[in-house]
């Protein structure tokens, strides 16, 4: 009797997964296709020209050899 119940669960479990996949797959495909569609009138108006502002860099946070100093190197061998 237990074997029959397990067999029914397995059969309906697969059917449930197949139904969910067959219903969900079109929604996924439709959402991808809808996301790729351009909204109406999007290409009609050209984008206004952006104003560019000049930026001057006066310093840097990159450490130099004078600021950092020597780091010790450890050599490990089998001894």
Unreliably modeled segments: none
The biggest beta sheet is recorded as: none
Structural class by sheet pairing and helices: mainly alpha
What's the overall average pLDDT, rounded?
Answer: 73
What's the number of helices? 2
Instruction: Assign a percent range to the helix content.
Output: 40-55%
Q: What is the radius of gyration? A: 33 Å
What are the main properties of this structure?
single chain, 2 helices, 79 residues, 0% strand
How are the secondary structure elements laid out?
Blueprint: H1 2-36, H2 65-68
Account of the 3D structure:
The chain has 79 residues and is mainly α. The chain has a domain at 1-37. It contains 2 helices and no strands. The protein has helices at residues 2-36, 65-68. The model has no long low-confidence stretch (mean pLDDT 73).
Task: Offer a concise description of the structure.
The protein has helices at 2-36, 65-68.
């Amino acid at each position: 009797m237990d074997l029959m119940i397990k067999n029914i669960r397995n059969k309906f479990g697969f059917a449930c997964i197949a139904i969910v996949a067959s219903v969900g797959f079109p929604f996924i495909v439709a959402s991808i296709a809808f996301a790729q569609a351009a909204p109406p009138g999007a290409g009609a108006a050209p984008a206004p020209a952006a104003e560019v502002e000049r930026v001057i860099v006066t310093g840097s946070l990159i450490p130099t050899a004078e600021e950092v100093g020597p780091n010790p190197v450890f050599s490990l061998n089998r001894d």
